[in-house]
Amino acid sequence: MRRASFRDRALVVRSYDFGEADRVIVLLTRHHGLVRGVAKGVRRAKSRFGSRLQPFVELNVQLYPGRSLYTITGADTLTFYGRVIGEYERYTAACAALEAAERMCFSDVEDPWLFDAALTTLERCCGADDPTLVLDAFLLQAMEHSGWAPSLFDCAQCQRPGPHHAFHPGAGGAVCVACRPPGSIEVPESSLRLMWWLAHDHWDAVRGASISAQVAGDAHRLTRTHLHWHLERVIASLDVHDQGAVS
Fold it and tell me: Which end of the chain is more exposed for a tag (fewer CB within 10 A), N or C?
């Protein structure tokens, strides 16, 4: 029995060439999870919608299910987040957010929260003075959504109230003196507080605080460490972002 085509909102997270003129587009969709679709003929100059199938564009796509890949038969632009392209840190933060979303999403499994969070992150990156904070907020909230957010106040092992000054991703985040395993990272209370604000979208507190580069950098490194530990793989675009932020 042939499956019917459908429409969904989508973001392009990745693409690669397929055949002589086609391209496989990896889409984060709102109602169908991660979808891999073939856009036929989009590498030809006269393609009807090839220019729309780019990162940082919210799309309304029409998809036809196939055996292993969908076919993209239509794509309309809803929003273009073009301001992220003009500045390196915004661009790489947005790329890292989309790659992380891809790694946290499942094929054909509806996840409207993740899609909406990715859209919000792109919108915030367009106007952010510090895109790394926007990226960290997305990563922390996405880890919470996935069920493996770090504990940032109570001890992750014994639930002893904090604040604590050690962090280990394998132990679940912040740990007290009695529970801290070998290899724990010494961390100032202010960095864990910043992570808590970001994880709970307390942007007024973030903007009202005097956050040093050291505190923000520590928070970012802990967020990254926890993410990579639980994904068990590296987010390549996060490496690119961090290399540019350091240089």
Answer: N
Residues 121 and 69 in one domain: no
CATH code at position 44: 2.40.50.140
Classify burial at 246, counting beta carbons within 10 Å of its beta carbon; exposed 0-12, middle 13-18, buried 19 or more: exposed
User: What is the per-residue pLDDT across 33-56, written as a single tens digit (0 to 9) for each?
Assistant: 999 999 887 777 676 766 788 889
pTM above 0.70, yes or no: yes
Say how many residues make up the chain: 247
Q: Give yes or no: residues 20 and 137 share one domain.
A: no
Q: What is the pLDDT of residues 26-39, one digit of tens each?
A: 999 999 999 999 98
Relative to beta strand 70-80, strand 57-64 is antiparallel
Q: Answer whether 169's CB lies under 8 Å from 229's CB.
A: yes
Return the closest-CA partner of residue 240 out of 119, 83, 134, 91: 91
CA distance linking residue 118 with residue 236, whole number of Å:
18
The range of the structural domain enclosing residue 63 comes to 6-80
Contact 216, 195 (CB under 8 A): no
The residues near 103 (Cβ < 8 Å, ≥ 6 apart) are: 231, 233, 235
